[in-house]
Amino acid sequence: MAKLIFRKFMEAKESVETSLRRKESSNDDISLETKQLCALREIFHYVKNERWISQERSKRKALVFLKNHCSYEKTRDELNASSKNSLEVSLSYLSKKLEAKIGKNTIELIMEGRLDEARIQFETGTGKLNPRGYLIEGFTNLLPPPVHSHSTLLTCEREIKLLLAFTLNHLTGLAAKYNQENLSYLMYVLTSTDRGLANDRRVLYQLLKGEYSRDASGESLNLNSQIAMALEEYSKNF
Questions:
Q1: Which pTM does this prediction carry?
Q2: pLDDT, position 178
Q3: 62 with 50: CB under 8 angstroms?
Q4: Residue 125 phi/psi, 5° resolution?
Q5: What per-residue confidence (pLDDT) applies to 21?
Q6: How far is CA 124 from CA 25, 42, 44, 100, in A?
Q7: Which DSSP string do the residues of the chain spell out, in sequence order?
Q8: Cβ(126)–Cβ(101) under 8 Å?
Q9: Residue 1: its pLDDT value, please?
């Protein structure tokens, strides 16, 4: 039977606290243990305060189990559970639910000292980290669904560059290099209903929709050629 994540947590916490006390008594460096304990406390804070399971009664059962150092007997007595077997089944279910949130091997990563990896895995599983928080809105909708099809990032260099090109961080820096007055004007054209800018608005939206992306023969045009074609047509109606 797989070890419950609650038991993994308690064993990890006790191990780190023991190591911390030993090193403190001998004046050894305790920086690793301090960081490990902080990471474990963050997990406990999540278990105690966040909605990782829909029923509060189920969450309380997990917290009582942790409080009683993963003793089925003490937990059963405190909760007045009908039997040890039913409690074990229930806690096994809760363990799988929690493990799916915080990450299957997050506690192991903490104990191995791989704290950055553990933190990012924990924050990804709990929803604190999400690619939508770093990529421009709507970009992820253009991508295929997640599939584990590679063993490393080494074969994905071109695709990584694509992601970076559409990060908020990259585009914020890029936008800062352009004439802000011109950009403000373009946004006014796109968002206003000013009748005097009807032609400007038409041309801009047609550009954004890709209506100038190909020439008469159907060949793809680069951005400069698209803009030149659009502005040529715009000038005829100016």
A1: 0.83
A2: 97
A3: no
A4: -65, -35
A5: 95
A6: 37, 14, 16, 11
A7: -PPPHHHHHHHHHHHHHHHHHHHHHTT---HHHHHHHHHHHHHHHHHHHS-SSS-HHHHHHHHHHHHTTT-HHHHHHHHT-S-HHHHHHHHHHHHHHHHHHH-TTHHHHHHTT-HHHHHHHHHHHTTSS-GGGTBPTTGGGGSPPP----SSSTT-HHHHHHHHHTBHHHHHHHHTTS-HHHHHHHHHHHH---GGGHHHHHHHHHHHTTTTSB-TTS-B--HHHHHHHHHHHHHHT-
A8: yes
A9: 55
Task: Report long-range pairs for 194-199 (Cβ below 8 Å, ≥24 apart).
Answer: 199/234, 199/237, 199/238
Residues of the chain with pLDDT under 50: none
Tokens of 140: 């992820």
The residues facing 214 across adjacent strands are 220
State residue 9's pLDDT score.
Answer: 97
**pLDDT given at position 236:** 84
